Amino acid sequence: MKAIRALAAVVLALAAISLLVAVALNFANIIGRYVFFSPIASAEEIMLFLSVGTVFLGNSYVGWKGAQIRMDVILHALPDRWRRWLDVLSDLAVIVVSIVIIVVGWPAIQMLAEFDQRSQAADIPLVLPQALIPIGLGLNALFVAVRLIENFRTGGGSEPSSEAF
Question: Helix 43-65 and helix 2-34: axis angle, to 10°?
Fold first, then answer.
């Protein structure tokens, strides 16, 4: 469990760094464009790729914490036993959907790698930002599964037993 907590902390740090780099690049591009009249040509493309990393890596940490957005108005009206089982069902659905998206999307990522397709402005191999999607979803499935197993083992609630770091 310590390894999973450490992995969750690393994933959260990577998502935060990705967001901070995107913000810094945006700031540098604004200064370049309006102060020096020389914008960074590939800034928008790089910021888009960093946003993909932020979203999918950050989403896996949200799955670890059990803090996904839910429509839970009816859930709160149900007895605790029903609510716990619906939470489990919801977590199982997250795992299944994550795995299905990985399996269905993987051939496209393989083709990007085989053809060495690159972005237009930054000349970044498109396999890199596209690979962040299955990596984030795989981490999400792993974290949710570990959280579920830990909850069954300890009889705990919907959050992991302690902080990620």
Answer: 150
C-alpha–C-alpha distance, residues 109 and 107, integer Å? 5
Strand partners, 118: 125
One-letter amino acid of 115: F
pTM, two decimal places: 0.86
State pLDDT tens for residues 18-74: 999 999 999 999 999 999 999 999 999 999 999 999 999 999 999 999 888 877 788
Alpha helices for the chain (secondary structure H): 2-34, 43-65, 73-77, 80-115, 127-154
The answer for residues whose C-beta is within 8 angstroms of residue 92's C-beta and 6 or more apart is 148
> What's the number of domains the chain is made of?
1
How far apart CA 34 and CA 89 sit, in angstroms, is: 52
Structural domain containing residue 63: 2-154
Residue 46 domain-assigned? yes
Q: Is residue 54, in this structure, part of any structural domain at all? A: yes
